[in-house]
């Protein structure tokens, strides 16, 4: 029988197999999007609306798609973004992603709400790892977390700055909506049976991990035990990172800092003046403020304003290698992958993530060949056409 990953030729395929493997409520939690889902959808459409102007009658035997992001040499301008609770979707979780990112010679951003502790992730990692800090339980509760990730050897901190409150999930019409369980008890288990009986792969994983409520490995209670999933999610929103916290964070952390969730020139300029090392233009994959601008249309103005002063990365809506080339042509140093690796993880675990990163590598190389350039560093805005409606 063929492995699932060998059947995956696109992120769409991976989404199809992810939906087949995990219970409906859990799939909907990972697919997410908020409110009318307009931002999640237009993120993807924005990449589709940009068209290439290739230079033809050009042939190169090989193409260089390697680059440097945050001082790390990476095999391609695509890195793995922080997505929470990966272990709920597949038992391979963050350590599986760490091994895949290492093999692909790229960077992993690890969520502040991981299923596995940072020490375990660092043991599996062979490439750079950045830890995304959520204040699980307030700012003061985070000082020991910073100490802990420092000791574990992470390369940098990511502050996700677009989540001041919990977002309303996508409006899914009642008959199609599946509840995720609200706790781990007999009543919830009973309610959940219709969703899991035909998901043997996922269920077997869950049985192997002891049928317990997933834990927020880095969110500790006062007695030192990890918080449960539901408790941890609630704790994130007690306080979230803001500009005025940067001096406090710097007291505890001397390494690189990335701000993730920038959408305006004003905030990008402020990030420069605060001395952070990189920004990620992101709307959290359309998972936060419903109706936010898509990310690709604001990339050119942000690059024009701060591109010489700071590394500009982008995410939200990247689904194929040509999307990466469009972002790089418009001045991004690289992109972050979210659902593009999440779905392969849910579908096929670590081999699925390895497979998709390989596919992105191939697609970027092929795209470069079609564009008629030898190196990714030769790309500039003259290689793309933007829709007129993007003019500001
Ligand atoms: C289910 C889900 C969970 C996420 N959890 C986190 C998180 O814990 N921390 C964070 O910084 N971003 C989180 N993100 C946002 C991703 O890091 C990334 O910005 C987003 O997925 C990019 O959009 P895309 O999925 O359309 O590519 C999450 C995204 C999804 C879909």
Helices and strands in order:
Elements: H1 11-21, H2 24-31, H3 38-49, E1 51-52, E2 67-69, E3 72-74, E4 78-80, H4 86-89, H5 93-103, E5 108-110, H6 118-124, E6 129-132, H7 143-152, E7 156-160, H8 186-196, H9 200-208, E8 215-220, E9 226-228, H10 229-236, H11 246-252, E10 257-262, H12 265-273, E11 278-281, H13 299-306, E12 311-314, H14 321-329, E13 334-337, H15 339-371, E14 384-385
Parallel strand pairs: 4-13, 5-6, 6-7, 7-10, 10-11, 11-12, 12-13
Antiparallel strand pairs: 1-14, 2-3, 8-9
Helix pairs in contact: 1-15, 5-6, 5-15, 12-13, 14-15
The structure holds flavin mononucleotide.
Structural commentary:
This protein has 392 residues and is of the alpha/beta class. It has one domain: Aldolase class I (TIM Barrel, Alpha-Beta Barrel). Helices cover 40% and strands 13% of the residues. The protein has an 8-stranded parallel sheet. It has a two-stranded antiparallel sheet with strand order 1-14. Strands 2-3 form a two-stranded antiparallel sheet. Helix 1 runs antiparallel to helix 15. The longest helix has 33 residues. The chain is globular. The chain starts with 10 loop residues before the first helix and ends in a 7-residue tail after the last strand. The relative contact order is 0.21. The chain binds flavin mononucleotide (FMN). Flavin mononucleotide (FMN) binds next to helix 15.
